[in-house]
Write a structure and sequence with these properties.
Radius of gyration: 23 Å
Distance between the termini: 57 Å
Number of domains: 1
Number of strands: 12
Helix content: 25-40%
Largest sheet: 9 strands, mixed
Organism: Roseateles agri
Protein name: DUF1501 domain-containing protein
InterPro entries: DUF1501, TAT_signal
Pfam families: DUF1501
Number of helices: 12
Strand content: 5-15%
Length: 458
């Protein structure tokens, strides 16, 4: 069967996937929904805006040196298991007491996040990770309940965190949240915006992520400037890639995608050019900070882009520290802390801090036990939730017992999660406005968990 004889539904799916893949070799946001820019949907009131920002830490962040046991007994247990990796207690930044009287602290490099925690703008989700259903240690050991596929594998656990499915998943829960708000955005192409390349988290069943660079919208090569020094050549190229009078349906649809891409790039560039410079300082040498600066700018021009609900994705890599953890991890945590704090300050400057929530995520946590110079792949981890609407200055979930082969440990300090990603995601989705009846379409396993609102918001 020739491709232009495929059944209509298969053709539509092919086109959706093709638009998501983009064209290799062109530094351009090709990944656009085929139905994304032509409609002028009924946007909600200008003040009814919310944005969710996923900050993904690729490689598996070491939870134990990020949010550190601080009370004397817990710290001693932590230090004895971590050997040369343990951060000296006197350098740690203490946080509030846990309900059971224990105490946690932040790494020394995270002073700005400590300030946000103390100000009630940031909270800590304890021991969260990928689960299919609530799982006890006995059930895990007996393999009597379904578990996420290929635990401790980077690719699969990145995918499961972002999509609730193994590697190869066609959509993620960030994109599926975006699907619910396509009709409330004036131009749906700007519903899910990725400043970090491409991630399954941002792909929806309808929405396709729009990609920008930290410097702004990325033009299609040689459309906005002369090709080989010739404007005439550039005009011919533009005509070839935007003509709609093609005889083959694939050519026609491809050219429609390109036309929309050119239009979106022009609209973003124009909107950003009219945005006054932000007074908030972002460290230009910090890649995560420059990504979040662009998110802040995109939020700043939300009205010009017709956006009422948006999901953003940024990332920081380098966390797979099987060796050199003591040397490399502090700099990563410093970049994370500085970037998040600057971003929150920018949302305050823009007057939208109560309408923007950022959260961290990662492949998995790591082992509490040291391998000598680093830590190995784990499971559960601790993460941050930040924003003006966040009821911060507190912890959510259960703090793990700091002991080798304890009740929360599946081996070497790999935490068995006591909170699922589905619960975290359901809490954020509900804040965005996703009705409870639609949560199963966003999070296929959420019905396995009784508690679906973790209380991040007042």
């Amino acid at each position: 069967m020739r491709i232009n004889q495929l059944p209509r539904l298969q053709r539509r799916e092919f086109l959706r996937r093709a638009s998501a893949l983009g064209l290799a070799g062109s530094a351009a946001p090709w990944a656009l929904s085929l139905a994304s820019m032509g409609e002028a949907a009924a946007a909600t009131a200008p003040g009814d805006y919310k944005a969710l920002v996923c900050v993904f830490l690729y490689g598996g962040n070491d939870y134990a040196n990020t949010v550190v046991p601080y009370d004397a007994a817990s710290y001693q247990a932590y230090a004895s298991l971590r050997a040369s990796l343990a951060t000296p207690r006197e350098q740690l930044l203490p946080l509030a007491l846990l309900p059971d009287g224990r105490q946690m602290a932040l790494a020394p490099q995270m002073g700005r996040l400590q300030s946000l925690f103390n100000a009630g703008q940031l909270g800590v989700q304890l021991n969260v990770g990928t689960l299919v259903q609530p799982t006890t240690l006995a059930q895990y050991k007996a393999q009597s309940v379904p578990l996420p596929p290929k635990l401790f594998s980077h690719n699969d656990q990145q995918s499961y965190w972002q999509s609730s499915a193994a590697e190869g998943a066609p959509s993620g829960w960030g994109g599926r949240i975006g699907d619910r708000f396509l009709s409330s955005n004036g131009q749906s192409v700007f519903t899910c915006v990725n400043v970090s390349g491409n991630a399954v988290f941002m792909a929806g069943q309808q929405v396709v992520q729009y990609q920008v660079a930290p410097s702004g919208a990325v033009p299609i090569n040689f459309v906005g400037k002369p090709l080989y020094g010739s404007q005439a050549c550039s005009d011919v190229l533009r005509g070839l890639i935007t003509a709609t009078d093609r005889t083959h349906w694939m050519e026609r649809e491809l050219n429609r995608v390109v036309t929309r891409s050119i239009g979106a790039q022009g609209q973003v560039a124009s909107a950003l050019s009219g945005l006054p410079a932000l007074g908030t300082a972002f460290d230009a040498s910090n890649g995560l900070a420059t990504q979040l600066q662009m998110v802040a700018k995109m939020i700043g021009v939300r009205a010009a882009l017709g956006a009422s609900r948006q999901v953003f994705f940024v990332s920081l890599g380098g966390f797979d520290l099987h060796s050199g953890l003591a040397a490399a991890h502090p700099a990563l945590l410093s970049n994370l802390s500085e970037a998040l704090a600057s971003f929150h300050a920018a949302t305050v400057e823009l007057g939208v801090s109560n309408q923007v929530t950022a959260f961290t995520a990662s492949d998995f946590g790591r082992t509490l036990s040291s391998n000598g110079d680093g830590s190995d792949h784990g499971w559960g981890s601790h993460h941050f939730v930040l924003g003006g609407a966040v009821k911060g200055g507190r912890y959510w979930g259960q703090a793990p017992v700091v002991v080798s082969n304890g009740p929360d440990d599946v081996g070497q300090g790999r935490l068995l999660p006591t909170t699922s990603v589905d619960q975290l995601a359901a809490t954020l989705a509900a804040w965005m406005g996703v009705p409870a009846s639609e949560l199963p379409a966003v999070l296929p396993h959420v019905g396995n968990f009784t508690l679906q609102n973790l209380g991040y918001f007042g």
